[in-house]
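We emphasize that the prediction below concerns an isolated chain of 176 residues; any contacts that depend on oligomerization or on bound cofactors are therefore not represented. The input was used exactly as deposited, without trimming of termini.
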Amino acid sequence: PAQVADDAAAVEKVLKANHATAVHVPKDAEEKNRLWEARRQALPVLARCRPTTVLEDATVPRSQIPAMMKAVNEIAAKHKVEVGTFGHAGDGNLHPTFLCDKRDREEFARVEAAVDEMFDVAIRLQGTLSGEHGIGTAKAKWLEKETGRGAIEFSRRLRRALDPKGLLNPTKMVEI
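Result of the prediction step, given as a token string:
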């Protein structure tokens, strides 16, 4: 608890020194629980705003969170899309959530372009495509940008060596 208190004080000092618009430190356990509940409700609340939510998972070094937030807001304005962002500031894991209606093809195309741009920024800021949800098939198209062609080829060779018949998850990213 003492280390957490010291870290919290240091974070508060840095935030204030950098002109944070607000710094709120819970005064007691009840207030802390209310803040956690607000964080837990972020996605359900956003999901009620529009018919479709495209929840992403981009992680950047903590020092790059302000730059990433600025970029997400600029990208949203550029593509005329709504984005609500929440996440885990302690590890730089952000969850930009794009709000749209997938039935509106033009709007959804703008969301897809915004997501592409957002991941490019995350990688440029020395971040990663995913802080906790993995790459999977949904983010496969960005993987080479993050890891490089050599890493993809190495993974394919390793997979062929371990699974020569291609029986394990044959449709996943690192195909034989």
